[in-house]
C-alpha cells in the first residue's frame, strides 16, 4: 500500500478522459457522466461512475461541473524581455507581420539578467496554469548567441523538461546566414544541448530555408535532440514536406499548405500543430483544420505564446478560435489541446485521465467542456490539480 494522500473528486457532471478505452459511447473525449476520479500522489488511480468510487482520504465535490485533462501547450516562446505591443498596433492598422520583429526582442533579451528572465517566465507560467495549462513546451530563440541561447534554455528548464533549442529563429543582424548556421550547428548547439530535449528551426522566407533547416536538424539529432519545425506560417514552401520526410513528431503552424503537403502529413503521421492565436493576432487566414482532419491528419492546438506574432497564453481562446474559425468540433478542439498536444511532445503520461496517468485535471465552472468554445473570453477555470496537487486556487 502506498502512503500517498488520496483524493476523490466526485460529483463530476461530465468528465472528459481522452481514454481510448472509453471511446465507445464516450466519443473521442471518452466522456463519462456523473463521474469521479481518484488521485493518489501525482497519479490518477481510478476513474469511473461516482456511485462506484472507492473511499479516499480527501473528498472534493465538483457539484455537477465538468472536469477535463489539463491543457498541454506544446509550443511557446516564453523566455524573452521587452514589449512589442506597438508592433501589434501597427499590424492592426495595416502593417504585415514579418520575421524581422524577432530582432527587437533579441536586443531586450540579451540585456536582461537571468533573474529578470526567470521571473518573467515564472509569471507567464503562472498565468498559463491559472487558465488550465498543466504541461508546456518552452523554446529559446531570443538570445541568438552561444551564451544567450544556453542561458535562455537553462531558465526554461526550471519550468519544464520540454525545452527546445531554437537558435535558428532568425539570423542576427551582425552576421551572415552561412556563418550563423555554422554557429548554430557548432558551438551554440554544444552549449544548448545539455539544457534541451528538442531542436526547432523557423523554416520560412526571411528566416531559414529548407536546406539550412535540414542541416540544423541533422546536427541536433547528432547531439541527441529531437526535431520539430516552424513551417508554412507566412508562405507556401518545403518545410512541412521536410518535417514529414524526416518523420518529425510535429510540424507547427501549417497555415499555407498545398495538396501535396496535406498528403505528406496524412501518410507520415507527423502531427500538424495549429496555432490559431497567431492568425488572430496577425490577421492572417486561418489554417484549414477541417480539411486536415478530414484528410486523416492528426491535429494539435497550442498557444505559440510569444511577444511578436501572438501574445496569448490562453488555450481556451485557441479552442474557441479553432471551433469558430477552423471548423473543428468542440470535442476535436479539446482533444487537440490535450491528448494530441501530449502526442506532439511524444508524451503518453499526460493529456489523458486514466489510471497511471499524471493527475493533471481542470475543474470548469460549467456543466460541459463545450463551454470552452461557447463562452469565449470567459474565465471558466475553477480549479487546477497538477501532479495531484491543487495549484488553483492557491
Ligand atoms: O512562432 N514564427 C516564428 N516565431 C514566432 C514569432 C516570433 C516573434 O515574432 O517574436 C512564431 O510565430
Ligand atoms: Fe512559434
TrEMBL record:
Keywords: Cytoplasm, Histidine metabolism, Hydrolase, Iron, Metal-binding, Zinc
UniProt: Zn(2+) binding residues: 75, 77, 230, 304
Annotated positions binding N-formimidoyl-L-glutamate: 142, 306, 308
Chief site of localization: cytoplasm
Associated pathway: Amino-acid degradation; L-histidine degradation into L-glutamate; N-formimidoyl-L-glutamate from L-histidine: step 3/3
Binding site residues for 4-imidazolone-5-propanoate: 84, 142, 169, 233, 309
Cofactor-binding details, from the entry: Binds 1 zinc or iron ion per subunit.
Domain Amidohydrolase-related: 67-386
Requisite cofactors: Zn(2+); Fe(3+)
Reactions catalysed, as given in the entry: 4-imidazolone-5-propanoate + H2O = N-formimidoyl-L-glutamate
Sample GO molecular function, one term: imidazolonepropionase activity
InterPro entries linked: Amidohydro-rel, HutI, Metal-dep_hydrolase_composite, Metal_Hydrolase
Compartments where found: Cytoplasm
Binding positions (Fe(3+)): 75, 77, 230, 304
Listed EC numbers: 3.5.2.7
Family assignment from sequence similarity: Belongs to the metallo-dependent hydrolases superfamily. HutI family.
Entry-linked NCBIfam families: hutI (TIGR01224)
HAMAP family attached to this UniProt entry: HutI
Record PANTHER family: IMIDAZOLONEPROPIONASE (PTHR42752), IMIDAZOLONEPROPIONASE-RELATED (PTHR42752:SF1)
Function: Catalyzes the hydrolytic cleavage of the carbon-nitrogen bond in imidazolone-5-propanoate to yield N-formimidoyl-L-glutamate. It is the third step in the universal histidine degradation pathway.
Descriptive protein name: Imidazolonepropionase
Gene this chain is encoded by: hutI
Amino acid at each position: 500500500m502506498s502512503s500517498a494522500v488520496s483524493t476523490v473528486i466526485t460529483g463530476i457532471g461530465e468528465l472528459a478522459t481522452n481514454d481510448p478505452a472509453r471511446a465507445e459511447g464516450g466519443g473521442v473525449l471518452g466522456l463519462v457522466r456523473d463521474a469521479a476520479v481518484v488521485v493518489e500522489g501525482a497519479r490518477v488511480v481510478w476513474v469511473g461512475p461516482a456511485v462506484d468510487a472507492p473511499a479516499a482520504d480527501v473528498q472534493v465535490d465538483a457539484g455537477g461541473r465538468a472536469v477535463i485533462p489539463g491543457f498541454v501547450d506544446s509550443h511557446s516562446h516564453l523566455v524573452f524581455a521587452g514589449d512589442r505591443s506597438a508592433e501589434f498596433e501597427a499590424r492592426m492598422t495595416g502593417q504585415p507581420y514579418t520575421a524581422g520583429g524577432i530582432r527587437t526582442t533579441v536586443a531586450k533579451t540579451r540585456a536582461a539578467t537571468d533573474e529578470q528572465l526567470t521571473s518573467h517566465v515564472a509569471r507567464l507560467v503562472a498565468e498559463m496554469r491559472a487558465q488550465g495549462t498543466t504541461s508546456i513546451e518552452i523554446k529559446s530563440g531570443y538570445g541568438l548567441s552561444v551564451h544567450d541561447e544556453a542561458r535562455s534554455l537553462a531558465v526554461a528548464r526550471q519550468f519544464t523538461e520540454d525545452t527546445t533549442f531554437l537558435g535558428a529563429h532568425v539570423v542576427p543582424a551582425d552576421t551572415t546566414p552561412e556563418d550563423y548556421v555554422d554557429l548554430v550547428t557548432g558551438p551554440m548547439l554544444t552549449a544548448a544541448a545539455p539544457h534541451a530535449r528538442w531542436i526547432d528551426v523557423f523554416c520560412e522566407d526571411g528566416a531559414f530555408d529548407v536546406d539550412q533547416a535540414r542541416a540544423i536538424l541533422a546536427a541536433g539529432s547528432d547531439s541527441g535532440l529531437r526535431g520539430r519545425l516552424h513551417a508554412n506560417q507566412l508562405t507556401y514552401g518545403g518545410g512541412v514536406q521536410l518535417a514529414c520526410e524526416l518523420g518529425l513528431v510535429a510540424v507547427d503552424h501549417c497555415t499555407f499548405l498545398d495538396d501535396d503537403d496535406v498528403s505528406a502529413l496524412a501518410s507520415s503521421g507527423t502531427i500538424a500543430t495549429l496555432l490559431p492565436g497567431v492568425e488572430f493576432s496577425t490577421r492572417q487566414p486561418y489554417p484549414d483544420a477541417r480539411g486536415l482532419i478530414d484528410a486523416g491528419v492528426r491535429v494539435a492546438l497550442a498557444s505559440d505564446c510569444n511577444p511578436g506574432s501572438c501574445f496569448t497564453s490562453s488555450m481556451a481562446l485557441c479552442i474557441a478560435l479553432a471551433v469558430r474559425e477552423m471548423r473543428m468540433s468542440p470535442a476535436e478542439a479539446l482533444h487537440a489541446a490535450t491528448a494530441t498536444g501530449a502526442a506532439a511532445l511524444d508524451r503518453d503520461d499526460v493529456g489523458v485521465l486514466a489510471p497511471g496517468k499524471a493527475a493533471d485535471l481542470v475543474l470548469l465552472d460549467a456543466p460541459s467542456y463545450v463551454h470552452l468554445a461557447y463562452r469565449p473570453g470567459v474565465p471558466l477555470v475553477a480549479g487546477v490539480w497538477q501532479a495531484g496537487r491543487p495549484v488553483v486556487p492557491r
